[in-house]
Amino acid sequence: MLELRSQHTFYGILLYIASTIFVLYLSLPDSPEANVWNAIFWTIQLFVCVNTVAKSFLAESRGLMLYYYSITSPTEFIIAKLLFNIVLMVIMSTVSLLLFYIFLDSPVTNALKFYGIVILGGTSISLTFTLMSAIAAKAQQNAALIAILGFPVILPQLLLLVKLSKTGFAEVFRNGVVLQLTGLIVGLDILVFVLAVILFPYLWKE
Questions:
Q1: How many other CB atoms sit within 10 Å of the CB of residue 100?
Q2: Cα separations in angstroms, 80 against 2, 11, 52, 68, 189
Q3: Interatomic CA distance for residues 153 and 203, integer angstroms
Q4: Nearest to 122 by CA among 6, 23, 36, 17
Q5: Cα–Cα distance between 100 and 93 in angstroms, integer?
Q6: Is the C-alpha dihedral spanning 150, 38, 120, 179 positive or negative?
């Protein structure tokens, strides 16, 4: 894909992640509590997604979009975009988690479970902002629309992810709560994916 040629963006985000976490390491005198650590982690993931995935359509020129229009169908194009952004966000989230482990003492007690939630969260955030970016790109490149449209959708997702990720800190939930939270997040992901596939062909015609 042509996105692979924009390596300056990839390395720029890696620098952003590393510098942000290093500043946190220098600023926090003691190891943050589990709730603080968790909240900081997901806040950084949100900003990372805004700076990478959310620009996936806004950075495309009209000429490049016309080229895409001539070689592929809108459904194939949006699915490819969604999958590429999921992979990109999972990579960024993995790097963030590794740096958190290195610079900030991790209160995570179940690393495998927490990493699974990180992958789920990266997928959720990237799907949402990919769809928002596609809509905003058709509104005269109005990047402010991403924040306006994305906030009501991403807020419940983040709240669910923050709550679900507490299972990685040995927090005890009632029977069935973890499965319910996971189901809600997966359900939102499926809804966003289906909406993207249905709505994008109409945006594509514009």
A1: 20
A2: 12, 22, 16, 12, 16
A3: 20
A4: 17
A5: 10
A6: negative
Q: Which two tokens stand for residue 132?
A: 């928002």
Band (141; pLDDT cuts 50, 70, 90): low
Burial 112-121 (b: 16+ CB within 10 A, else e): ebbebbbbbb
Per-residue pLDDT band for 10 (boundaries 50, 70, 90) equals confident
CA-to-CA separations, 195 to 65, 134, 203, in angstroms, rounded: 21, 12, 12
Mean pLDDT of 64-75: 75
Instruction: Write out pLDDT tens, residues 90-101.
Output: 999 999 999 998
Domain boundaries, the chain: 2-205
Reply yes or no on whether the pLDDT at 23 is more than 50.
yes
Identity of the amino acid at 86: I
Distance between CA atoms of 203 and 74, rounded to whole angstroms? 9
- In angstroms, the CA 71 to CA 12 distance is 30
Sole residue written with tokens 């988690």: 97
Distance, in Å, from the CA atom of 114 to the CA atom of 120, rounded to the nearest integer, reads 10
Residue 178 CA: distances (Å) to CA of 80, 161, 204: 31, 11, 38
Q: Which helix (H) or strand (E) holds 102?
A: helix 74-103
Query: Token pair of 197, please?
Result: 């596939």
